[in-house]
Amino acid sequence: MHARILTRGHSGSEEVFARRLTEGDHVDGVVVTDAPERARYEAHIDGVLAGFAEYRRSGDVLAIPHTEVDPSFGGRGVGSELVRQVMDDLRGRGLLVRPLCPFVAAWIEKNPDYADLLDPAYAADDLG
C-alpha cells in the first residue's frame, strides 16, 4: 500500500489529508492539491503536473466544468484518481458538486457511493 496525500491551501496555511490506498487502486504517487488561486485541483506525479480539474465555487457547491490529463500520463488512471480525491475532499469539507464536465459526471455514475455529493439543484437526468 502507498499513501496518497491531498493538500488544501487556506490563506497561506495548508491542511494535509492522508489516506491509504486500497489494494484495488492502481495509481501510485498521485498527489492532489487544491490550488484556489488558480481555481482548480491539480494532480502531480513525482512533482510534475499530470492533470487538473477546474472549478467554480458558489456557496457550498463546487461546479467542475473541465478536467484534463497531460497525454504523457494518459491511460494510467490519473483522471479517475484526481476525481476520487476531489470528491473525498468535498465530502470532508461538507461541499456538494455540480459535475459539468462529462468525465466527472461519468465517474460519479460509475461510483454511486459518491452520488450523495451531487447538488440537489442539479437534476440526476443531467448526468447522462
Automatic annotation (TrEMBL):
Molecular function terms from GO: acyltransferase activity, transferring groups other than amino-acyl groups
Keywords: Transferase
Transmembrane segments: none
Superkingdom, natural source: Bacteria
Protein name per UniProt: N-acetyltransferase
Xref: Gene3D superfamilies: 3.40.630.30
Domain N-acetyltransferase residues, every copy: 1-128, 33-119
